[in-house]
From TrEMBL:
<keyword id="KW-0813">Transport</keyword>
<dbReference type="GO" id="GO:0017056">
    <property type="term" value="F:structural constituent of nuclear pore"/>
</dbReference>
<dbReference type="InterPro" id="IPR037624">
    <property type="entry name" value="Nup133-like"/>
</dbReference>
<comment type="similarity">
    <text>Belongs to the nucleoporin Nup133 family.</text>
</comment>
<protein>
    <recommendedName>
        <fullName>Nucleoporin Nup133/Nup155-like N-terminal domain-containing protein</fullName>
    </recommendedName>
</protein>
<keyword id="KW-0539">Nucleus</keyword>
<dbReference type="GO" id="GO:0000972">
    <property type="term" value="P:transcription-dependent tethering of RNA polymerase II gene DNA at nuclear periphery"/>
</dbReference>
<dbReference type="GO" id="GO:0031080">
    <property type="term" value="C:nuclear pore outer ring"/>
</dbReference>
<dbReference type="GO" id="GO:0006606">
    <property type="term" value="P:protein import into nucleus"/>
</dbReference>
<dbReference type="InterPro" id="IPR015943">
    <property type="entry name" value="WD40/YVTN_repeat-like_dom_sf"/>
</dbReference>
<dbReference type="GO" id="GO:0016973">
    <property type="term" value="P:poly(A)+ mRNA export from nucleus"/>
</dbReference>
């Protein structure tokens, strides 16, 4: 029996950290290894769980994964006391391990070609080795699971701090960390004795210099008041990342030694970026951001960079909500890029406590996909990192039936796999009908096809001999686009070929039918009415009254439109229509249709950038928006703000620039030349126009360079 010392009462947060962790280090009780010796004819293809109660999940199915659970796993669950901590980890290698009270059970869940398990279990061609660490530091190492009784024990020297992570790295060694960021490297000598030493800190040409100087180079000294939130081992690159409440660190690890190559003070940059993404467009943002709290929970690697799971809340908000965000950081080797991406998910439950937030974990099943899953003991939330086209529809999948809890999970066979207390190993799989389009855009397209629900997509294409009106072709190509987004590539290609045969006449002409239909659909996407936003149907407080989600909702709508535009471009490329596009008459002149599609994308980007300018120039931008709406005779209902109406029609976004100049002229006439107001409006208008002076397709018509020239000409005496 492996019985480590009792857990100190100071480990207040450990019960929140054990479930779903990347290690067994957070187990509060002793560990007993109990291997399953019989071979498994496991399958990696999940099957539908007919009895599982997830009928309220619209876009996902919960399916069983792998073989039935081993007898010892079932016995452990059956015999577990109410106070026993249960934690399960699923690994991409096809192995799973469970800690249940004083038992550690490891079993194979599916056959894969992966040779190593990165974390607690290391699989080689001849044997499996395991390192298990209890919170207070008691460690047990099995060199081979073929000899269950052959193990070595030691105590990891973390002082009074509790251990929270253990990962397997190169050279058959392991790295153990504490909640306060201490890092120890453990390995066995030829006699089997476990040796340990502190991880080398700040090695290289900058080691030894002061913290103030080192911060200039992206290096910083260890901080005493620092909590460790995540440890990530990337075996392919031989890199170890740690995420603390104050910063991100990186080591390059070889068979024997390691070198710290990065220590980035991420606290300020991440906090400001997350706060700006959520509250940045509020008129009193400068006041709001001082009270914003941000905490980190987890970190994973995608092809676009390191993805950090963060949550933000503002105590003065009523109600106070916790906004879960995915922040993507680009690792350039020895530094982190200044440019980062913040995706504010639509999961924003009421804020309870920071400890409760720490129970949430992040899973990225495919590094090449933007699909992401957040999960804790009670739910799985499907979302996207925001760095790729398409992605998953955002949806909460509850696991809160009586007696059920999620005890952990991981990625296997490129699927998110979870261990349900009631159902065992299950995979969350997108339904075949689930679309890669954002849900709001999907609903709008379906409505436009028949003025009804999704059944509108069941339109039949006419035969080639039947004439089809252009309006009908627009609807039919929309239906083909929806089929493509729902992964029915064959149906989408068939419908497209029927509508626009490859040998069709008129390709490449100015104003050809194909160009007109494609342009019409793309324009419908960028100018889509957000019908799912209740504020377009119900009256809500005016933005000046402090409606906290207005700006965030508009940004989400623009982001959804950008994703839909990206999906439409993918569709045109995949079905062979993109290369067949010719020219379209735009502003009384011919323009390449592909360039016009680029213009729509630039206008979407310009709209998002302009919306973010509310942070510092809210009053100026709002007045310009009112002028633009007045010129276009656009009505603003009592349930909407002027920003709602203006940012809905993205194709007319450029109208605001002339209005900015008009507002500037009015301000200059009303204020003396040497006044602060005079200088502020000149600098603000100049900044906004310069930021938008990056288009290559003439999207911001008239071109910002022309506006900027006129702007400075007006300032001449």
């Amino acid at each position: 029996m492996f019985s480590p010392r009792s857990t100190p009462s100071s480990g207040r947060r450990q019960s929140l950290r054990v479930t779903g962790r990347k290690s067994l280090a957070g187990t509060p009780t002793g560990l007993l290894f109990s291997p399953r010796r019989t071979s498994l004819a496991a399958r990696s293809t999940p099957t539908r769980v007919q009895s599982y109660s997830t009928s309220d999940a619209l876009h996902f199915d919960v399916q069983t994964f792998g073989s039935s659970l081993p007898v010892k796993v079932m016995e452990a669950l059956t015999m577990a006391d109410a106070d026993d901590q249960i934690s399960v980890k699923v690994d991409e290698s096809g192995w799973a391990w469970m800690v249940c009270g004083e038992r550690l059970i490891i079993w194979k869940i599916c056959q894969t070609a992966v040779a190593k398990v990165h974390l607690l279990v290391v699989v080689s061609d001849k044997s499996i080795s395991v390192m298990a660490v209890a919170p207070e530091g008691t460690a047990r190492f099995w060199p081979s699971l073929a000899h269950e009784g052959n193990y070595t024990e030691t105590v990891v020297d973390m002082g009074e701090n509790l251990c929270n992570f253990v990962v397997a790295v190169r050279g058959g060694s392991f790295i153990v960390s504490s909640y306060k960021g201490q890092m120890m490297r453990l390995g066995a000598d030829p006699s089997g004795k476990l040796l340990q030493r502190a991880l080398q800190q700040g090695q290289g040409v900058l080691s030894g210099i002061g913290r103030r100087v080192s911060s200039l180079f992206g290096m910083r000294a260890p901080l005493t008041n620092n909590n460790l939130h995540s440890v990530l081992w990337v075996g392919e690159m031989g890199c170890l990342y740690t995420l603390t409440s104050c910063g991100l660190s990186k080591w390059e690890v070889d068979e024997v030694t390691e070198h710290q190559v990065l220590s980035w003070d991420s606290s300020r940059a991440l906090t400001e970026s997350v706060a700006d993404a959520i509250w940045g467009s509020e008129s009193n943002y400068e006041e709001i951001k001082e009270g914003v709290n941000v905490t980190y929970m987890d970190m994973q690697l995608s092809q676009d960079g390191l993805v950090v799971l963060a949550a933000a809340w503002h105590p003065s908000d009523s109600p106070c909500l916790a906004y879960f965000c995915l922040v993507t950081l680009l690792d350039n080797g020895n530094n982190i890029s200044d440019e980062l991406s913040v995706e504010v998910t639509k999961y924003n439950p009421p804020f309870q406590s920071e400890d409760a937030l720490q129970a949430m974990r992040l899973m990225l099943p495919r590094a090449s996909s933007p699909a992401a899953f957040l999960y804790n003991e009670e739910l799985v939330f499907a979302c996207s990192t925001g760095t790729g086209r398409g992605g998953l529809p955002e949806e909460k999948i509850p696991f809160n039936t009586p007696g059920d809890r999620l005890r952990g999970g991981g990625c296997c066979a490129n699927l998110p796999v979870f261990f349900s207390q009631n159902s065992g190993l299950v995979a969350v799989v997108a339904r075949e009908s689930a679309s890669m389009l954002p849900e709001t855009m999907e609903d709008s397209l379906c409505f436009s096809l028949a003025g009804a629900g999704p059944e509108a997509t069941a339109m039949e294409t006419p035969t080639r001999m039947e004439p089809v009106a252009q309006e009908d072709k627009t609807k039919l190509l929309k239906a083909a686009f929806l089929q493509f987004c729902r992964n029915d590539l064959v149906g989408a290609q068939t419908m497209t070929d029927e509508l626009f045969p490859p040998e069709g006449d008129g390709d490449g002409e100015v104003g050809g039918e194909l160009d007109l239909v494609v342009t019409r659909i793309n324009l419908d996407l960028v100018d889509d009415y957000p019908a799912s936003d209740p504020r377009w149907a119900e009256s809500v407080p005016d933005e000046s009254a402090g409606f906290p989600l207005t700006s965030l909702i508009i940004l989400h709508q623009l982001e959804d439109k950008m994703k839909a535009h990206g999906c439409f471009m993918d569709f045109l490329l995949q079905v062979g229509l993109l290369d067949r596009l010719g020219q379209t008459a735009v502003r009384s002149s011919p323009m390449a249709t592909r360039l016009l599609l680029c213009e729509h994308a630039e206008k979407l980007q310009a709209a998002m950038t302009l919306k973010n300018h509310h942070t510092k120039h809210g009053e100026l931008v709002n007045r310009a928006i009112l002028i633009a709406l007045r010129k276009s005779n656009a009505a603003v209902s009592t349930s909407l703000t002027a920003a709602d109406v203006f940012f809905r029609e993205v194709s007319q976004i450029s109208s605001v620039f002339e209005c900015l100049l008009e507002e500037e002229e009015r301000t200059l006439k009303e204020n003396p030349v040497d006044s602060v107001k005079w200088a502020e409006v000149v600098l603000s208008v100049n900044t906004i126009i310069k930021v938008h002076n990056t288009g290559s397709a003439g999207s911001l018509y008239p071109h910002p360079y022309t506006l900027l020239k006129h702007h400075w000409q007006r300032l001449q005496p």
